[in-house]
Amino acid sequence: MTLLLTGYEPFGDHDRNPSGEIARKLDGETVADREVVGHVLPVEFDRASDEMEALLGDHDPEVVVATGLAAGRTGVSVERVGINVADCAGVPDNADAEPRNERIRGEGDAPAAYFATLPVVEVVSALLESGIPARVSNTAGTHLCNNILYRTRAQLEADDRGADVPMGFVHLPMTPEGAAEKAQDGEATSGGGVEPSLPLELQAEAVRRTFEVTASDRETGS
Ligand code: PCA
Question: What's the structural domain count of the chain?
Fold first, then answer.
C-alpha cells in the first residue's frame, strides 16, 4: 500500500519550494507501515493534474496528500475545501499561463467545490499536540494548490474512489532559510518585515503526522 505525496516546484519569485523538497525527501520512506511515493508537480495549470492523474493510475494510493507553499502563512494549514475557480491572482504559472476568474470545470453541473476528505480537524489537533503550529484553513486560494485539490477530488469521484481514498491539501510556510534569503531583497535592515517560517524538518514531520492520522482514521473508520 502506498501513500502519495506531491509537492510543487519553485514558482513566482520563490527560488525554493519546501513542498517539493519534502516530497523528494520523503519519497521511499516508510510512514504508518506504508511506503511514501513522493513526486514534485509542475506549477502549471495545464500539466499538474495530468501528472496527478498518472500518479493515481500508477500507484493506486491509499491516501493522497498534496502540498504547496503558502508564503506569509504563520504555520501549517490543512485545507478544508477546493473551489471551482482558477485565478492566478497576478502570479503567472511556470508556463506563463495567467487565468483570471475562470472555472476549473466549466460544465453547468460541475460542483462549486469539493471538500478535502482527509480528517482535517483530527490532523490539525494531532499536529498541535506534537508541538507543530497548525490550523484548518478554509481557503486554498485560486492558484495551483486549490487547483490540484479540486481536480484530484473530482478525479477520485469520477473513478468512484472518492469515499475510499482520503485526499487533501496541506499548505506549508516558508523555511527560515527561504525567509532570510527573501528578506535580503527587502527592507529588513531598515526595520521592514520578514516572512514567518518553520524549519523544513518540522514541516516534514507535519506531513508524516498527516499521513499517520489519516491512515489510522481510515483503519478505525472501516
Ligand atoms: N503554492 C501555490 C502554487 C504552488 C505552490 O507551491 C499555491 O498556493 O497555489
Answer: 1
